[in-house]
Amino acid sequence: MERTPSKPMAALWMAGWLALMLMITVAGREVLRELNVFQLILIRSSVGLLLLYPLIHRAGGFAAIRTQRLPLHIGRNTIHFGAQLGWFFALTLIPIGQVVAIEFTMPIWTAIVAALFLGERVTLWKFGAIVLGIIGVVTIVRPAAGEINIGQLIALAAAVGFGVSVAMVKSLTRTEQTVTIVLYMALVQVVGSLLPGLYVWTWPSPTAWGWAIVVAFCGTFSHYCMTRAMLYADATVVVPMDFLRVPLTALMGWLLYSERLDAFTVLGAALILTGNFLNLRPGSPAPARAST
User: Residue 2 falls within a domain, yes or no?
Assistant: First the structure.
C-alpha cells in the first residue's frame, strides 16, 4: 500500500502522535497510582477496540481488513505488548522525563532493523539526526556510573522492543491498511492482558476510569498517527521526529511534577531540534544516466 513520499505529511501525522503521547504519559502516571499495569492495558485495549469500530466501518467492515500477514502482526504486537508493559511499569519507578529520555535509544534499534531487513538506506542526514538526537538525550539524562537502577533497565528494554516494533510496522504499511495494523495491536494486547488483568482486577474509582479512558483513546489513535506517518516516509525519517517528545516531556514534568528543568535540558533540547531539522532536509536527487 504505497503513498507518494512526503516529509511534510509525515511530520503532520507525527505532530498528532506527539500530542497524544504527551497526554498518555501523564494519564499513565496518574492511573497507575491505583491500577495494576496489566489491568490498565486490558482496559486500554478493550476500549480501544470500541474506538476503532468507526474506522473499521469506514474502511469497509471487517471483511475489508483481512490480512495475509497474520504471523507478522502477532510477532510485532507481542514484542510491542512486552515493551508497553515495561514502559508503563517504568513510569512507576523513575521520573517521567527519564522514562521518555531512555526510550529515545529506540531509533538506534529501529534504524538497525530497518537497514538490515527492510532495505532502507541510512543517509548522512538521517545518521546525523539520530546522532544529534541521542547526544541530546544523553545531555538531558546525564547518566552517572553506578546510578542505573531497575527502572532505567526496564525502560531501556522497552526502548529496544519499541524500536523493533516500529521497524516491523514499516514493513506492514507496504501491504496493510492503517486500521488493520492498529486493530491487530489491540486484539493481541487484549489476549495478552486478559488473564493477568482479571486476576489482579480491582474496580477503578471514577477518577481512575477517567484516566484509563484517556490512556485508551491516546494509545489507540497515537499508533494510528504513527502508522499513517510511515506511509509517507521511511522509519529512519519518521522516528527521529519523535525526539521532540523529550524536551516537551521535560517541560511537562517541570510544570506538573516539579521535575528539574535546567541548562542541560535546554542544551539537549536544542541538539534534538537541530537533528530534526537536518532530518527534514530534502534528499539529493538521483544522478542522471549518461545518454548512449
Answer: no
Instruction: Please say if the pLDDT value at position 8 is more than 80.
Output: yes
Name the average pLDDT for the chain.
82
For residue 17, being part of any structural domain is answered with yes
Q: Judging by beta carbons within 10 Å of its beta carbon (0-12, 13-18, 19+), is residue 126 exposed, middle or buried? A: buried
Per-residue pLDDT reduced to its tens digit, 217-256 = 998 888 788 878 888 887 667 777 777 888 888 888 888 8
291 within domain boundaries: no
- Cβ pair 194, 138 in contact under 8 A: no
| CA–CA separation, 106 and 97 (whole Å) | 15
Domain residues for the domain of 139 are 7-279
Q: What is the pTM of this model?
A: 0.76
Q: How many domains does the chain have?
A: 1
- The residue type of 100 is V
**Domain membership flag for residue 287:** no
